[in-house]
Structures are given as structure tokens and as C-alpha cells.
Amino acid sequence: MKKVSAAKTPVYFFGTCLADMMYADSAMAAIRLIEREGYEVVYPMEQSCCGQPAYNSGFPEEAKEVAWKQVQLFAKHDYPIVVPSGSCAGMMQVHYPKLFKDSPDLFTVKRFSERVIELTTFLHQHAHAVYQDKGTPIKATWHSSCHAMREANCIADSKALLKQLSNVELIELERERECCGFGGTFSIKQPEISGAMVSDKVADVVATGASVVLSGDCGCLMNITGHMEKENINVKGQHIAEFIWERING
Amino acid sequence: MASNEKFNFAQNVAEALADSQLRANFRFATDTLIQRRSTVFASPEETDFLRDVGSSMKKDVLANLPDLLERFEAQCIKNGIIVHWAETAKDANELILSILEDHSAKKVVKGKSMASEEIHLNSYLEKHGKEVIETDFGEFIIQLCHEPPSHIIVPAVHKNRKQIAEVLAEHVEGMEYTEDVDVMLANVRSTLREHFKTADAGISGVNFGIAETGTLCLVENEGNGRMCTTVPPLHIALMGIEKLVENVEDIPAIYRLLCGSATGQRVTTYFNMISGPRKKDERDGPKEVHLVLLDNGRSQIMNDPQLGDVLKCIRCGTCLNHCPVFTRIGGHAYGSTYPGPIGEILVPQLEGLNPKGAIATASSLCDACAEACPVRIPIPEIIRRMRDESYGNSDGASVAGHGYKKNCLESMVWRGWRRSQTCPTMNKMMLKGLALFGKWLPAVGPLKSWMSVRSKPKFGKNSLKDLVKKEGVRHE
Fold first, then answer.
1. Do B454 and A48 touch (CB under 8 A)?
2. Pairing relationship of beta strands B208-210 and B215-220 according to DSSP bridges
3. According to the model, what pLDDT value does residue B394 have?
4. Closest-CA residue in chain B for A54?
5. Contact at CB, A56 and B417, closer than 8 angstroms
6. Considering the entire predicted model, what is its pTM?
7. How many Å lie between the alpha carbon of B355 and the closest alpha carbon of chain A?
8. Which positions, given as ranges, span the membrane (chain A) (predicted)?
């Protein structure tokens, strides 16, 4: 299945801070999926976080410094920057230019933002990935992260990839467009409200009868699976990249 | 829980979340309102176009507000409306009282008006011996319970049918308990009819003021607004200065945006265009119409290009319906006239960040509000600005109370975070530390909050950086 790679531009990979801390395997699966389509993946070793936690918490200066660090790290080549998270991709595409709106670096930052692309959009729209499902029949449900939906606009691509998996029955969530309650530091600053939101989201997940809930964002997954574990609910949470990688490799 | 009482947001939130009936009522209501809105705005292309029109229309109005207000005033005066300017809430209350006093008016019927809630008009007038009767069905119910509205459009949305039946049976003379909505409505209507007949004055809000013609537009469904503004001999309209539109032809778009967003209707049952008092040869209408133009901090807000966007708001309340936080805690928890996302950005500006800045933490920044807003107010961005100003981090801080949240610990945490994300050695050490000792982190502080409803996060043995190296991915 591996496509000819010679003519394809390499791509940069921005792994996200959560992948570094908790979801390294998911990000690794994402890298493998990109490579599978014949692209060489380049990973700048000093990358860290997109800066969103500080940006959303009222510390834009800290966010700006962290953002600038990333911009510099990906400046060596003009490669597309693939991000396995709609939320981080949204931050980099939509909010970086705002952070630098009065800065002489705005031009550089905008060039960076334009190169950012969410993983499933890259796989579906650019790499035209085609998948053959080797897994056993399974019921899965899909959680759309808010920023994947409203900033990175990548949900249609994520679902298009999942729909190629012939043995996966995708059952939509009752309130797919509603936030799971993660919101970065929101889950810590307003734990009760966030708790009420995630518990409703998990109830919707359970109601689908699916055995796995998928998402393109590790933040949401951490929140949803964390609550399911606490409540002893037997549904697995998985990043879409890892799920697809497992399905196509049998 | 009115704005002037002691405000403890955390406690309000805890109480609201503990009330399962309240949560169920809000869930039901917001689900219904979202669904209704979606039927009116079924075409995304058309909706986007309409929202662009509404947004730019309001933007233009704000850009030319002083001139338009002068034009509006001149036209109103030409129409026979007596115009007053109120810089503060206190001014507005005193003005309205003095108009009532001038006419020896004792009994007032009121249409729904958020501006009047903002200035706490009812309690002021009651303190000065006036009888004030709310005539919107929802407002009537909550007035009986001595509660403020819990929603901009549906003030009694926090109560279900049974609870409303109980309120009516308990507080209204001669009314028996019934869950039959038609009977309830008929009973309230006949009670209100008596008040309309005997009131000395009517007070209303204004949804749109048309600068070109000096017309006051009132959007409603129950007909009570029309009763308030036509039956009593005196009509006083209260209007925030930002509620202007420039021309009559601007009305169809903005009216459609308001109805569709607020109640999911294409048009409302009543749309009143008030252009002045009763003329010589006319048989009905008030003998005098007064208009009170309320500033109450608005011109200050207007001076800031980012914050000024909040004044585009047409008070449709759709951001409340789409907000997952509002749906969980309801309007009263915000302890403010304007709850939900719009309240989070408007109230701290009207009342100061200390103490009202706390409500800006009640958002996961999911952007559902901005996605629904008919005039495209970038609500999440202004929420970020409120948070930023709360810590006093912004250069252009302008909201009263900015910097109230400044504290060394949190600043240090974010400085440490910045360091760990910009210095590769520190980053490596942090990841290594989490991999080795993450599972022994004590459940205190933020981790305790996290673990109140979730299991402890599992830090990976390897960072992605480790795997990239191990598995031979090209790195630089």
C-alpha cells in the first residue's frame, strides 16, 4: 500500500504537549499514518506547547513567548506543519496572528499559521489516504472537540477517514456539538461545572452503546476517559490516529 | 441574587449544580430553543449572509453613534416624544420617578425591559411608593416570587409548568392550582387587564430605535407591550444608547435576526413601531411619550475598539441557550442582570471586574456562543480580555477593577510554565520528572480539582520526543 515518496515534500510534525506527557503512542501512530502516505516526517526536537493554556487563562505574554519559540523552531523549512489536534491547530492558525497583531513579527507568524494543518485534514484532503479495515466489527462513537469543529474545521475530514473503515459502525453522539467540559484550565478553575459537563457527555457516550469513543484531541480524551475510569464505565477512549493505525494493521 | 447584593460566584454555582430540577428545566429549555432556532436558520449560507449584514449594520451604528443619537433625538422631538438623557443608572431612576411624580402617577404597568433590570428600576420605584406591575407572563411570575430574571428572553425559564402553577395558586387572589397552560394564561390575562385599565403610566424597553425617523420599535409576542404603551395616558420608554439602527430599511434584517435567534420565530406576534403620542384626531394612545436614553457606562465601553463590540448585542439571548455552562448553572448563578456569555463580557464592564470578573471564568471557551451570535460578537475573545485584565496583564487595561486577581503564586506558576516550554533542558527535565514521579503527585491544588470527577492522569513512560528518537523519525 505504501505510495511512492520521491516527489512529495516532507512535512513537519507538531506533536503537542499532551502527546509528550501522556499520548506519545497516539502521536507516533499519527506520524506512521503520514509516512504511510509517502511523506517524510520531520520533527523539531525542541518543540513544546502551542501556548493555549496561558492564552486562555489570562496570561497572553507567556503564551506569546511560547508561541514565538514554536514559530522559530519550524522556520528552517517551508514544510506544512501537521498537528494531531484540532485545538492546537486552531490555536496556531487562528490565534497566533492575534497574539502578534501589533508586532513586527506578524508577517513571520502569519506565514507560520498558514502552514499549520490538522492531521485528519492533511490525511484526507492532501494525502487522499485510503484505508482498508482489517479489524473485527466494532461500534464506535465520535467526540468533536470544540476547536476542531469551530477553528480548525476538520471534523468532516476526521469522519470521512473513519467512514472508510468498513467494520466500524459510527454512532453519532446525541449532543455532538456540545463541549465536554475540558477547556484546559477551565476544568481546574471551575471543576464543578466542568464535572457536570463531562458527566453529561459520558452519559451520551454510554447511550450510544459504543465500545470506544474516538476524538482527534487528547485534551478531550483525557477528560472523558478520566471520568469514565473514575465511574468504572467500560468504554475505551482513543485518539483517531491510533485507532486507524490499529484497524488498518489488523 | 440581584447585582447589588453580596456576590459569591463559587457558592452560587455549587447551589445551582446541586438543584437537579433546575438543571433539568434549563436543559429542556435550552435544547428546545436551540432546536427552534435551527429551523429558522436552516440554510447556513443565508444565515451567514444575514449575520454579516447584522454585524456590519451594528458596527456602523457604533462608529457613528454620537451623530446618530443626535439625529434620533431630533426626529423623536419632531414626533412629539420628550427625550431625556441619563448618564448613570441613578440618573435614569430619578428621571423616571420625576416624570411619574409630575403626572401624579402611582400605578405603573411594565413591559419586559432588560435595561430596567440593569438599573433596578422596580425596586427604586417601589421604594418611592409606586406600584409596579410586570405584564410579560414570565416577568409577572418572577415578580410574584421576588426573583430577578434568569434569562434575557425567557425570564422564568428556570421554572417548569408545575412550579409556575404553584406560584400562581399561592400568590394570585382567586386563582386555583391548575397545570393547564391555557387556563393559567387566561387567568393571568384577566388579572392583567384590570391593571392595564387602571394604570397611570406604562413603562417599556426599546428593541430598536430608528435614527432616520425617531421611531421606537418593540418586539413582543403577548400583546402586553402594546397594552403598556397605548392604554395608560403616559408612556415612558427606556433605551440603552446602543440600541439604534440607522434607517427603517435596516429593520427587516435585524428583526429577523432577533426573532430567529431569540425564540426561533420568523416574525413575532406583535411588532410595535411607536412614533409619538396620540395625535389630535386619534382615539387612542398615550397623551405623552417620554424616552430615557441610558448610557450607564456604554460610552466608556465604546472607546475601546475590542470591548466596543459588546455593544453590538441585540439582547436575543441565543448565546445563553448555546452555552454549556449556562445550561448547567442557569441565569441566577451569575448574580447579574445579564447572565451567560454576553453577561461575562458585559457585566464586568458595567459593574467592574471586582467582583464581577469571576463570571468570566465560567467558560470553557468552546466558541458555541460566537458561532450562534447573530451580530458576530467575538465573545470568547472578549472573555480572554476580561481574564487578562483580571490579572492586570494587559497593557491597555481599561475595565474598572483590572488587576484585582493579581497574585504571586499564579504568576510564578505561569512563568515556570513558560520556562519549561521555551527552554529545552527544562522541558526535558519536566517530562522526565512526570514520567518517573507523575503517579506519586499528591492530589492537592489543581490535581485535586481534576480528580474530583476524574481519575489521576497517567503520564507516559516515554515522551513523544523519546519515541521519535527511538523509532528513527527524522528530527532536527
1. no
2. antiparallel
3. 73
4. B414
5. no
6. 0.95
7. 16
8. none
